[in-house]
Amino acid sequence: MTGADIFSLLVATGANAAPASPAAAPATGGWEPKDYFALITAITGIVALIVSSLISSRTLKASLANTEASIWQKANDGEVNEIQAQLDGFFGPFMRMSDVNRLLSRDLRARQADSQRFLLLESLFDREWLNNLPQGEKTLVTEIVANAKTLREFIAANAKMVNAKVQPYLSRAAAHYRVLELAHAGQLGNDAKPFVDLYVFPIQLDDVLTLEVKRLEKRKELIRSHPGKPIPPIEDLVISDSLKLKEWPKPARVPRPELNVPVEQK
Q: What's the domain count of the chain?
């Protein structure tokens, strides 16, 4: 309520409290009891208005604060749910399945005479080696290749929810799994070297996934420790140079106008 509103109310209150007498009395030059009563009534009304205004202002501020906190709470809860969906929907299952394949691969490698240099992808091109394996080791190889297919299909179905910086590592892993399947099926010939040079498993993947999981868990705990409050943007995923992927070959191309194939010039 503005000062003009209060003044108008004061005038109206005084007028109502002391109505004019039908027969005017002679002026005495002093205050009569009814004048004091009118003044007290007006002052009381003004004080009541001021107190009411202050209470209303505080109530409004508290209401706005509660509304803002509720909005932030919903936003933060939404972000926590998204993070948990990534952890439960991709990272947890993928890392568990990958660990199973790692254990099987280590067991197979430990059984080989040249275990320090053994590489399954390379050995699969040697059909004699594969055919002469003991039955137990053949079963291990079959299981590893089957798990590779499962992991590849899982990446294809669920990687869309993962940070863009992690995607190249998953793509390399998926390519490795596919070539492993093809080599096991004998569909890539007997020359292992060109495939091993390109499609060896990206060992950086495990460390990159661990970094991303830690980043997401840290973000989740930060949000939960500040419910109903604005939170700074999530930290970017930092991948050190030691975990960078080897550059993938990109053969030069020449324009072929007859095919109408645009060529990216760099």
A: 1
